[in-house]
Here is the input.
Amino acid sequence: MSCDLTVVLPSYLEEENLRLLLPRIKEHCQKLTPNFEVLVVDTMTPMDGTSEVCKDIGVKYLNRQGGNTYGDAVRTGISNSRGEKVVFMDADGSHPPSVLDELYESKSEADIVIASRYIEGGFTENSKILVLMSLIVNMGYRLVLGLKCKDVSNSFKLYPGDALRSLNLNCQNFDIVEEILFKMVRSNPTFKIKEIPFSFKKRMFGETKRNLFVFIFTYVITLFKLRFS
Ligand SMILES: Nc1nc2c(ncn2[C@@H]2O[C@H](COP(=O)(O)OP(=O)(O)O)[C@@H](O)[C@H]2O)c(=O)[nH]1
Ligand SMILES: [Mg+2]
Here is the structure.
C-alpha cells in the first residue's frame, strides 16, 4: 500500500525539538493530503525519549539499520517509505514545517523540489564562516557534477518516491544528500528541478553534531568519487 507523501526525519538526540516540531509537521501534511506518513529515523538503539515522543504524537518511529551514521538513517528512511513523493527534513527546527506546503504544491511543476537558501528570497541564520564553506561546497558540486541548482547540500528536498527507492546509495555522512541528487539526475536526465526560497533557522535545542573536519574531508572525497563513478 502506498501513500501520497512521506516525510522522513533522520534524528540524533532530538527529543525536545521533535516534541515541538512533529505536531506542526502533521498539521501541514494533513492540509496537503489525508494520505501521508511521517517517519522518524532514530539511532540504532534509542539514546533519548524520541520513541516516546513519536508514540505520543502518533508518527512512525524507526531505528536505523546497517549502521549508525546519517547515511544509514537516510537509507533506512528511504527503504521504509511508501510515498509517491518523499520529503527529507532536519529534526532540529532548522527546516520550518510551513515550507512543506510549497514543496508539495510544486510537485506538478518539477520532479525534484529543493528548499533553497541560495536563490533570491532565501536566507540562512548560519554563521558567516559556515555560509562561506557551504557556498564553496555548493559551487564545487555544481561545477564538477553539472548539477543545475543553487542549493545542492541542504537536505530539505522533495523527491519522486519510486526514483528515490531505486537508487543505490553508499555515502555515510551528510554527503549522501549530494549523492542522491547526482544519482537521481544521472538516472533520469529529463527530471526537472525547481528551487523555492526558504529561511534556514538556527537549531532550536541542543548543539550541532556535525564535525567540521569530517564534513570538509568527506565532501571533497565524495565529489571526486561521484565525478569518476
Ligand atoms: N551529526 C549527525 N546528525 C544526524 C545524525 N542522524 C541524524 N542527524 C540529524 O541531521 C540533522 C542535521 O544535523 P545537525 O547536527 O543539526 O547539523 P547542522 O544542521 O549542520 O548543524 C539533525 O536533524 C540531526 O538530528 C547523525 O548520525 N549525525
Ligand atoms: Mg541542524
Observations:
- The chain has one domain: 3-227.
- The pocket of guanosine-5'-diphosphate (ligand 1) is lined by residues 10-12, 14, 69-70, 73, 90-92, 94, 203, 208-210 (CB under 6 Å).
- Residues 11 and 211 are 16 Å apart (CA to CA).
- DSSP finds eight helices and nine strands in the chain.
